[in-house]
Design goal:
With 900 residues, the protein is mostly helical. The protein has 45 helices and nine strands. The strands form two sheets. The protein has a six-stranded mixed sheet, sandwiched between helices. Strands 1-2-3 form a three-stranded antiparallel sheet.
Length: 900
């Protein structure tokens, strides 16, 4: 065990006993500077029988005695100098003493004084003198030994003493003394060294156990050593622990493989000694006759892929399970080089044509982001099963190659390979991984027909994926039809349909469906995905009371530990106007990820607190969280809402300079919007001209929106021309251009754009507003006549309009693009959905209660002016969230400062 201890410490071995003690042996204990050691006059004198006879664990009381001393205390252990240093010849006596003295002198870097060093030298010289001068310490047999005293040493030396005992084979004594010592409060600063010594002693016990064929006792000793090292955090990353783990793994694998060419004690010792000796173990195992499959499999299961790969070429007949476990180990350890090594061995042995292993290889390359290698495996395999096709479909879909999947699917059908439920799942997902287009939607519909013809329409996983495909294309009616026809629904199906409504501007339907799920499927419990969609719906409707109810449900179901749910809660409270609650939720998250930070940044942004959003963004970076692309969208959007142009430009430039992120379409769109809102349209146009990527619809849309605010016809025509090409079916772009022409009184152009809308059978998205009263959500649009209070609402708005006109209000009818007389235009403007929602809130809420409204479009100028007036005239606080931001009306003033 002496050699083993040396190897673990990384120090050279010596003849007989240690030639040198490692200079950093006790560095972890970090003792404070000490004064000269007190020499107690009274010492405990254990008998030789006490030290050599078999014994049970000694208690702290009769094993370790702590003596009073100025600083630090000394400890007396029942060990003689003979036991501590052994009975070497005269030359080794001097060398041992010098080595221990050198060890203590090296501690001067830790802050020891010269006096403290001298006191140690005195004590050690005293030990040396005893060895040389006193005959009872010079004998070479137990009969000649007459120990007269125990050894008294400072606590700071305790670990070194245990290591020396370990050197001379006093394993049980190390465990006895160590176990007793750790119970003393004085030992706390030195626990690190004590535990390390005890762990080594347990390793020695394990070796002895294996030598005596007491395998279970050996493994128990190894487990105790692991427990000792894991009991203190500072030891969890020590090299000794990793070596013990690997040694134990090797021994377990040897037992499982039933190979007899290598003894357990030999394997344990050699693995504890380190890599050079591991190589010797591997070389010995290579030469062992017998089936190595079980050993390789055991090594894979224990996570020792490197050793398994070293043995793999020396197994002439690897089993399919062995190859599979090697492939899975490469995935678990995220190692493409090892995966390529396994693949190469399979090819060399001719096993790569096994369809099962080829399928596993494709899956491995997919997980390791090596799609080219996955294609190569597929192309070179002669006999392809449906499982291979599915594996490649999945790999290509995850890599975003949806069109390639659909082409291969067509080939598969042409050669007559029948699809299964996994095939349909992957090809449906392939329709939406690329940019959504009408062509891919048509492909999805064709696959839908294929599913029905082959009677997979009742399979819940297939139909749920089909539903999700339609939802991603925005085909809510198709998705709803698939959902209604499902015979069996699981929580994923319900969640997918709720998400479909929430993400396609149907939040009211999302909440209704969630309520239906709770009532009709009580055995199904909504999961975190469900709750994220429901919270998004509450946020879209500014349904604060519903949101609070959902928050309570989340707490009762224990879903508040899920980061996506907590991030959605932040967004929900912010979009319901409760920014302080959003901040509280954020503060309660223990481990905040980038999504949580993004939610808070966006929350301050939509409320117009751009400077606060920038501060949160900087705090995120200070906390070591790297910003994502969404982080920049959120903070740049916040700058746009408050007009922080220079701050936004600095943040935009930092993307590449400080974070290594190249701007995408979304970040460019934010910059165009920021500059455009600030009436710096020429700079916005230059940003577009200088883009390193092709400007998308978002960028041109941001420019067109800015032109609408500032009435720039020339740039609006340029932007709309590109938008009509990129989004020919988006009616909003036509309406915005018509608004700009109307503002410029270019009526012929207004008619031309309106004719384009009619010819292309496009309809403007109708304005809709929602308000929550007594936990019930009410929806309004400008042509809604079904509300039983509609007559009362119009009457109230009429009275308010007359009062405003008496105070100088003139309705802004320019938003009406129809050729009507002024009175009719005023009637239309007065019937806008947000005005109806405000009136409903005035009638149905208590005085002093905040009126909260959400709208699906941008708040028009007339509604903005009217709401300001109502807030002052009725002394009510009104919160309106439009598609861009929050408007907090109070006393006739809006929080946006008329900048939106």
């Amino acid at each position: 065990m002496a050699a083993l201890a040396h190897a673990l410490l990384g120090i050279p071995a010596r003849c007989g006993l240690c030639r040198a003690i490692h200079p950093h042996l006790s560095s972890a204990s970090r003792p404070s500077p000490i004064s000269p050691i007190s020499r107690a006059s009274t010492r405990t004198t254990p008998t030789l029988a006490n030290l050599t006879a078999p014994r049970s664990r000694l208690s702290a009381v009769n094993t370790v005695t702590v003596h009073s001393a100025p600083a630090p205390v000394t400890v007396e252990i029942p060990v003689t100098c003979y036991q501590l240093i052994g009975v070497p010849d005269q030359a080794e006596k001097d060398e041992v003493i010098k080595a221990v003295m050198d060890l203590k002198i090296s501690q001067v870097k830790e802050g020891y004084t010269e006096n403290a060093i001298k006191s140690r030298q005195d004590l050690l010289m005293d030990v040396r003198d005893k060895l040389i001068a006193e005959p009872e310490y010079a004998g070479n047999s137990i009969e000649n030994i007459r120990p007269t005293s125990a050894l008294q040493i400072p606590w700071a030396w305790f670990g070194a003493a245990l290591w020396l005992l370990q050197e001379v084979g006093e394993v049980e004594l190390v465990l006895d003394i160590g176990q007793a010592a750790i119970q003393h409060p004085e030992a706390k600063p030195y626990i690190h060294d004590i535990l390390l010594s005890m762990a080594m002693a347990e390793c020695a016990t394990a070796v002895i156990g294996f030598e005596k064929n007491k395998v279970s006792q050996g493994f128990e000793a190894i487990s105790r050593a692991q427990s000792l090292l894991r009991s203190k955090k500072s030891l969890e990353k020590t090299p000794l622990l990793s070596k013990i783990d690997r040694a134990k793994t090797m021994c377990e694998c040897l037992i499982a493989s039933e190979l007899t060419g290598l003894k357990l004690e030999e394997a344990l010792t050699m693995f504890l000694l380190g890599k050079d000796n591991e190589a010797a173990v591997v070389e010995k195992l290579r030469r062992v006759d017998g089936n190595k499959n079980q050993l390789i499999q055991s090594l894979c299961k224990q996570g020792d892929l490197k050793l398994a790969l070293q043995l793999f070429p020396h197994e002439p007949n690897p089993s399919q399970q062995t190859c599979e476990l090697l492939i899975l180990s490469c995935i678990r350890q995220d190692s493409l080089p090892d995966g390529l090594d396994v693949h190469r061995h399979l090819v060399n042995g001719g096993w790569d044509q096994d369809p099962f292993l080829a399928t596993k290889l494709i899956e491995m390359y997919s997980e390791l982001d090596s799609i080219e290698n996955a294609r190569e495996v597929f192309n070179k395999t002669r006999k392809r099963t449906i499982y291979m096709w599915n594996a490649l479909f999945r790999a290509l879909t995850l890599a975003g190659h949806g069109t390639e999947v659909l082409n291969l699917y067509r080939q598969m059908n042409a050669i007559g390979v029948p699809s299964d439920r996994f095939t349909y799942t992957y090809v449906l997902k392939a329709c939406v991984v690329s940019e959504c287009s009408s062509l891919l939607l048509q492909k999805g519909k064709e696959i839908h027909g294929h599913i029905l013809r082959h009677r997979y329409g009742a399979h819940v996983h297939v139909t749920t994926t089909l539903l999700d495909m339609y939802a991603r294309f925005g085909c809510v009616s198709y998705a709803s039809s698939v959902f209604d026809q499902m015979q069996n629904r699981n929580v994923v199906s319900w969640s997918a349909m709720i998400a479909c409504y929430a993400k396609n501007a149907r939040p009211y339907e999302a909440l209704e469906l969630f309520r239906k799920m709770i009532l009709e499927a009580p055995d199904l419990f909504p999961n975190s995905v469900t709750m994220v969609s429901v919270l998004q719906a509450c946020a879209a409707l500014a349904a604060l009371e519903q949101g609070k109810f959902i928050h309570g449900y989340i707490l009762r179901r224990g879903l508040d530990s899920t980061l996506p749910v907590m991030s959605s809660l932040i967004t929900m409270y912010a979009r319901c106007g409760k920014l302080e609650l959003a901040q509280q939720v954020f503060n309660k998250i223990k481990r905040k990820d980038v999504v949580s930070w993004n939610s808070l940044i966006s929350s301050y942004g939509i409320h117009g607190y751009g400077k606060r959003a920038v501060q949160v963004f900087e705090d995120m970076i200070d906390h070591g969280v790297s910003p994502s692309y969404i982080s920049f969208v959120s903070v740049l959007g916040a700058c746009s809402h408050e007009g922080l142009v220079e701050e936004g430009k600095v943040i935009f430039q930092s993307m590449v300079r400080e974070h290594g992120l190249y701007p995408s379409i979304e970040q460019y769109a934010c910059m165009v919007d920021l500059l455009g809102r600030a009436n710096r349209l020429d700079e916005a146009a230059k940003i577009i001209d200088d883009m390193r990527i092709e400007p998308g619809a978002q960028v041109w849309g941001a420019l067109l929106g800015s032109c609408r605010i500032h009435g720039n016809v020339e740039l609006a025509e340029r932007a709309s021309k590109r938008l009509f090409e990129l989004e020919p079916r988006n009616a909003g772009n036509y309406v915005l251009l018509a608004d700009i022409y109307a503002e410029a009184k270019m009526w012929d152009e207004v008619k031309r754009v309106k004719k384009l809308l009619e010819d292309r059978e496009l309809q403007k998205v109708p304005g809709r507003s929602w308000i929550e009263v007594n936990r019930k959500i009410y929806s309004f649009d400008s042509v809604d006549e079904f509300n039983p209070q509609m007559e009362q609402l119009h009457a109230l708005l009429g009275e308010l309009s007359m009062e405003m006109k008496r105070r100088g209000y003139k309705p802004q009818t320019k938003v009406v693009l129809y050729d009507l007389d002024e009175e009719e235009k005023e009637r239309i403007v007065l019937g806008h959905s947000e005005k109806l929602a405000v009136a409903f809130g005035l009638i149905n809420t208590k005085h002093g209660e905040i009126i909260r409204i959400s709208k699906n479009l941008r708040l028009c100028e007339d509604c903005h002016y009217v709401t300001k007036f109502i807030s002052r005239f009725t002394n009510r606080e009104i919160l309106v969230r439009d598609v861009n931001r929050f408007h907090h009306f109070r006393d006739g003033v809006c929080s946006c400062g008329d900048y939106w």
